[in-house]
Amino acid sequence: MTIPRTRYYRYTIFIVILGLVTYLALGYGARSFEAYCPFGGAESLWGLFTAGEFTCALGPLNLSLMLSLLVLVLISKKTFCGWACPIGFLSELGGRLGGLLWKKRPRVPSKTNVWLKLLRYIVLVVALLFTYKTSELVLRGYDPFYLVFSGFGHGSAGIISIAVLVVLVVGALVVPMMFCRYLCPMGAVFDPLSRLGVIKISRNETTCTNCGNCGKACVQDIPVQQLRIVRHRDCTNCLECLDACPEKDTLQLRAGL
Question: Is 7 in contact with 240 (CB distance < 8 Å)?
Fold first, then answer.
């Protein structure tokens, strides 16, 4: 099986970032790996507004990363998710492994898929509400980023955390990008701005043969073959659809409103 060229570039970046986060998680470096979690920026806002200080282990770097990524979303949609997020990378690998294990992978019905995506907004509200109320990072015990890189460290919820991670791993084998699609609170933060992203994929309807390869290649299950411009909130500009398209220049990454 030939691996698309762009995936080589993406996975190289992913592996470098995964290595750096692992390096920090092992105790090397000046900062904890948690300092590089952009969602910590959202969790820190209430403490900054009400008490003028960061909540728990959060710091200026969390807030700076979140603000920088929000600007990036306005420029090129959820590129961070498709090119840099370590949990997004592990989720994608799980989805591809699941594709090898299933002869015919179960598919979430379109309407159910839409409704399930509302869960990430619930996760966002619950996480922020309890963090703001308790001044503690209550999401730690259920956050795959923290659980994986801390090795179920301080703040994990014992057997509950193990069960959560097992469900997420198994879920990734069944539904590609399950955590990213349905449960990621950072994705929910990005959603409103993602539709406005300047750099996005466009489809030439004249040269398109409607083969459907682009939609099949999309890890977020976006029907690219039905869209003239991919403004979908879940698009990460991973370019898998471009590599899958057999017609030259039918799908292109372009800047425009």
Answer: yes
Q: pLDDT per residue over 80-124, tens digit each?
A: 999 999 999 999 999 999 988 888 888 889 899 999 999 999 999
Report the distance separating Cα 187 and Cα 223, nearest Å: 19
Domains recognised in the chain with CATH numbers: 5-193 (no CATH), 198-255 (3.30.70.20)
Residue 220 sits at φ, ψ, to 5 deg, of: -100, 5
Asked if 58 contacts 66 with a C-beta cutoff of 8 angstroms, the reply is: no
Q: What is the C-alpha separation between 135 and 232, in angstroms, rounded?
A: 34
Quote the tokens at residue 51.
């008490």
What's the rounded Cα separation, in Å, for the pair 134 and 58? 14
Give the DSSP H or E segment for 252.
strand 251-255
Tell me if 57 sits within 8 A of 137, measured CB to CB. yes
How many residues are present in the chain?
257
Kindly state the helix (H) or strand (E) to which residue 251 belongs, with its residue range.
Answer: strand 251-255
pTM: 0.91
Euclidean distance between CA atoms 118 and 112, whole angstroms: 10
Is residue 241 a contact partner of residue 251, using CB atoms and an 8 Å limit?
yes
Q: How far apart are CA 174 and CA 97, in angstroms?
A: 10
